[in-house]
Write a structure and sequence with these properties.
VanZ-like, mainly alpha, VanZ family protein, transmembrane, Teicoplanin_resist-assoc, 69% helix, transmembrane helix
Length: 215
């Protein structure tokens, strides 16, 4: 029982540590945008923060499950991961779980950001997130697998299809009051790329700041 409690406490510490490294650069970005909004006499709505933090918590879960490579892995001696560039080499349970893992990305992104309601954008975002993860795993002993890239991208696409069908059934205006156009202090073009900005900041924060070996 003591061993279980100790494990749960340690796991909780690592989870909080990982979440902090994801949130920190994003909070700095939001601070800059908030200052810019005030200078332009504009206000950032509370639903903006709710949507963004839900998105970041999802990224935290993905990073935790996949185990992305870290700067600490590069400078730490160890076994480097393998690479599989042969498509559909393994269509086991892991392939289908990767599809399921990226379903929320395809659903959440167009739900939160009005300027990101195209399937092309959502699929590209899913591909980019998966590519970041797969490339980083070269450094931490995990396998960089093209099947994972295919499954994750397919999951984001399927998630978008679910969102699109749901919106068609429920009505186009369903949920529009809860949708945010993005940060009111940035341009229309920047709003479109805001999910990608948060992905990049979350990844870089984790890559450079998260070091589980130091605890």
């Amino acid at each position: 029982m003591k061993l279980l409690c100790s494990y749960l406490i340690d796991d909780g510490v690592y989870n909080i540590y990982l979440l902090i490294t994801i949130l920190l650069p994003c909070l700095i970005y939001q601070g800059v945008m908030k200052i810019k909004a005030k200078s332009n006499m504009k206000k950032m709505q509370a639903k903006y923060y709710v949507g963004v933090y839900a998105f970041l918590v999802y990224l935290w879960a993905v990073f935790k499950v996949t185990g992305i490579g870290l700067l600490a892995d590069i400078i730490r001696p160890g076994i480097r991961g393998g690479v599989n560039l042969r498509p559909f080499a393994d269509l086991g349970i892991g392939f289908w779980l990767n599809i399921v893992m990226f379903l929320p990305l395809g659903i959440v992104t167009p739900c939160i950001w009005k300027k990101c309601e195209s399937v092309r954008y959502t699929v590209r975002l899913g591909f980019a997130v998966s590519l970041l993860i797969e490339c980083s795993q070269i450094f931490n002993g995990r396998a960089t697998d093209i099947d994972d890239l295919i499954a994750n991208t397919s999951g984001a696409c399927l998630g978008y299809v679910i969102w699109f069908i749901t919106r068609k059934i429920a009505g186009k205006n369903c949920g529009e009051k809860c949708k945010m156009a993005g940060n009111y202090s940035v341009t229309m073009a920047e709003r479109k790329w805001e999910p990608a900005i948060y992905v990049a900041l979350a990844f870089l924060g984790t890559f450079f700041l998260y070091n589980p070996y130091a605890i």
